Amino acid sequence: MTIGIWVLGDQLNAGQSALAGVDPTQARVVLVESASVLDRRAYHRQKMVLVWSAMRHFAEELRAAGWQVDYLESRQFSSALPTWVERTGICELRVMEPADRGFRRSIEALKLPVPLRWIESNAFLWSRQAFGAWAEGYKQLRLELFYREGRRRFGVLVEGEGKTAQPIGGQWNFDADNRKPPPKGLQGPEPLWFDPDSITRAVIAKVQQLDREREQVGLGPLPGVLEPFRWAVNREQALAVLEHFIATRLAGFGPYQDAMVSGEPTLWHALLSPYLNLGLLHPLEVIRRLEQAGLEQQVPLAGLEGVIRQILGWREYTHGLYHWFGAEYPALNHFGANQPLPPSFDQLGGSGLNCLDTVFAELRSNGYAHHIQRLMVLANYGLIAGLDPQALTAWFHRMLIDGHDWVMQTNVLGMGLFADGGRLASKPYAASGNYIKRMSTYCKGCRYDVKQRTGPNACPFNSLYWDFLDRHAESLRRNPRMGLVMKQLDKLPEAELEQIREAAQQHRRQMVATVA
Fold first, then answer.
1. Which of 12, 180, 281, 352 lies in disulfide reach of 58, CB 3.0 to 4.6 Å?
2. What's the 3-state SS for 56-108?
3. Which one, of 498, 299, 511, 273, lies nearest residue 384 by Cα?
4. pLDDT digit string (tens) for 114-160?
5. Which CATH number, 3.30.300.180, 1.25.40.80, 3.40.640.10, 3.40.50.450, labels domain 128-194+230-325?
6. Measured in Å, how far apart are the chain's first and last C-alpha atoms?
């Protein structure tokens, strides 16, 4: 009797739970490369190459380790899987629990001739049950509380053990030390990139063919530039990226992790999230290696703690919340935002705002933007411009190289757009052009004046920001963290407020009509 194991495209780890404890001689593994994913969302070209190339490389790694592996290229996995099950004569199909809720529903809808057995996921440090047990003890599920619990639970950067463990350095969070604006001429070290091998080149050719087929049936092209493609596509390369980060970037990661610099899309950022989210790296092994290297090399604690917090804290927290909040969370729209996405978002350029167009250009090049570009430029614009939260969340999923449902729903809907009304974030992360000017070089050379609120040359982030506060003043006044800024709103003369409203409305009309 042969066991069938279906490995999904974001479960590319030899230690994943559906493979664990199974004798390779008694099992048959299947991976399915389905082009139907493009029917629902037009994903960035490089994202498609990354996922499919990583899947093909993982299939080869499993074969080399003694597994019998079938790699299926199919238009629809819904037809490919039942056919494969019948052809191979397996007695049971095992699947590790998907990270994305929707994919589990799709799998459960398959008409399979054999039992389907779900295996609890080990892709994250916190199981869903463990997160739920933690969450039940709090009225407000704040990151800081969860992060401290995680540090103690896994013994990371602490002295002592268990509930009495205390943080190395005397404090849990050094975030205040990691928010420095960029000085003139700031440059980060070169990231580690890779030339495509024959497997990756074959995937690039397939994506090119899919683009031609889309054109033939009247569909628009996939977004983003296809080449040069330089991402890691297997575990060996992903581990090399981790070691390169430790050797060249970890020591400098802290101070400027929130900085945004034209021509420096990566600065000191680790570039590990795509590989963590595909399973090429496991979060605990990354955390242990960072902790070991950071302490041995006496890396500044603020930077070491900062990068570990992004993995042990934020990544685990948002995944836990995604499942804790449930299936209705994606439809939330606290502010009733309904503006369509401007054409510049799909075109990845042509907005006329230097900050947006700089980030768009970097996204177009490789599907990457770091966390402050996502939160304080892209999502901030969506928040204050009143863009439809479901449309913008889907856009993030399509365009970002590390985007998945579980990532984007909490990060965009919750943190970025406050569409959940504060279930995740304690306040809306709305900001005017002043923040972008302070934390970036983007305002230099922009056609808009960041010092002006109204008028033809005024920065749209300014009018949109104050208009956002004005439109939602009743709701925002009830938020204790918004008290100071709402007092500033109250000081604006009514005549200026009317000009701000008109400027914001005019900008929204122009953006919808803009064609790059």
1. 12
2. HHHHHHHHHCCCEEEEEEECCHHHHHHHHHHHHCCCEEEEECCCCHHHHHHHH
3. 511
4. 999 999 999 999 999 999 999 998 888 999 999 999 999 999 999 99
5. 1.25.40.80
6. 59
Q: Name residue, tokens 């849990």.
A: 172
Alpha helices (runs of H) in 326-459, residue ranges in sequence order: 343-347, 354-366, 371-372, 380-385, 389-399, 405-408, 433-439
Burial class (CB within 10 angstroms; exposed 0-12, middle 13-18, buried 19+) of 37:
middle
400-417 average pLDDT score: 97
Which residue ranges does the chain devote to CATH 3.40.50.620?
Answer: 3-119
- Does 1 have pLDDT greater than 80? no
CATH of domain 3-119: 3.40.50.620
C-alpha 319/C-alpha 410 separation (Å) is: 8
CA distance 232 to 197: 11
Structure tokens at 264: 């420096």
Q: In the chain, which segments carry CATH 1.25.40.80?
A: 128-194+230-325
Of 431, 481, 376, 425, nearest to 144 (Cα)?
Answer: 425
CA atoms within 13 A on the CB side of 339: 23
Answer whether residue 504 shows pLDDT above 90. yes
Helix, strand, coil % in the chain, rounded to nearest 5: 50, 10, 40
pLDDT tens profile 226-251? 999 999 999 999 999 999 999 999 99
Per-residue burial over 257-280, b if 16 or more Cβ lie within 10 Å, else e, is: bbbbbbebbbbbbbbbbbbbbbbb
- Length, in residues, of the chain: 516
DSSP state of 221: P
Of 2, 6, 1, residue with least CA distance to 71: 6
Q: Which of 246, 508, 211 is nearest to 351 (CA)?
A: 508
E strands, 399-471, in order: none
| 218 conformational bin, left if phi > 0, alpha if psi -120 to 50, beta if neither | left
Tell me 383's DSSP state: H
